[in-house]
Design goal:
This protein is 27% helix and 28% strand. The chain is an alpha/beta fold. It has a 7-stranded mixed β-sheet with strand order 5-4-3-6-7-8-9. It has a two-stranded antiparallel ribbon with strand order 1-2. The longest helix is centred in the middle third of the chain and has 13 residues.
Length: 212
């Protein structure tokens, strides 16, 4: 990873004012060159706190949401080391996670996006990320169970397969809903799952299947 840029530091300071308090998350945001994850025509908007299109009908998430979801994972009592990400997209959220967790596994249904994201991880020397082209609804069971799971697209209902891939004490952070989406923080406690609604959000839908 490169050193913190002035723009990255300014973005981190803005997110702190917006309520992000975890210093590790803020440092990761400051260290991540967001322009690398955007089309050339949108690079000038890289450090704005807004979601932006990346092609294929997908978006790069608002930095606040990236930081908030990551912060929720770090607040878990189980001191998570292995994380499953559903929806690699541009790889921006992936890059933030890779700076904070020992191992990141990421699933993307659109092959071209997965290829581009993998190239960006190499550019940033983030080698603790493994990627898979596949259906996010199914997770990545052969690499699990995971200490934490983060989903970066809105599910119409709770994906049961992801519950099964979570370690005891682990957290699943997932937006749920269609028109009215809510960000859920779900903690596995033995055979039970405790769910807490964090806030209203807006994500592209979590679509089943995969495409080349």
């Amino acid at each position: 990873m490169r050193l913190t840029s002035r723009k990255g530091e300014s973005l981190a300071q803005l997110l702190h004012k917006e309520g992000i308090s975890n210093t590790k998350v803020l440092t990761a945001i400051a260290n991540t060159p967001r322009e690398l994850f955007l089309p050339d025509a949108l690079k000038h908007k890289a450090y704005q706190n807004t979601a932006l299109p990346i092609g294929q009908g997908q978006t790069i998430s608002q930095p606040y949401i990236v930081a908030r979801m990551t912060e929720l994972l770090l607040e878990s009592d189980n001191q998570a080391q292995t994380v499953l990400e559903i929806g690699t997209g541009s790889g921006y959220q992936t890059a933030v996670l890779a700076q904070l967790f020992t191992s990141v596994y990421s699933v993307e249904r659109i092959k071209t996006l997965q290829f581009q994201a993998k190239r960006r991880m190499n550019q940033l020397d983030l080698h603790n990320v493994k990627m898979k082209h596949g259906d996010g609804w199914l997770g990545w069971s052969s690499k699990g169970p995971y200490d934490a799971i983060i989903v970066t697209a809105a599910a119409s209902s709770m994906p049961e397969k992801l519950y099964q891939q979570l370690n005891d004490g682990g957290r699943l952070i997932i937006p749920v809903g269609e028109e009215n989406q809510q960000l859920h923080c779900i903690t596995k406690c033995g055979d039970e799952f405790e769910s807490k609604i964090i806030e209203a959000v807006r994500f592209v839908p979590l679509v089943a299947g995969d495409i080349i």
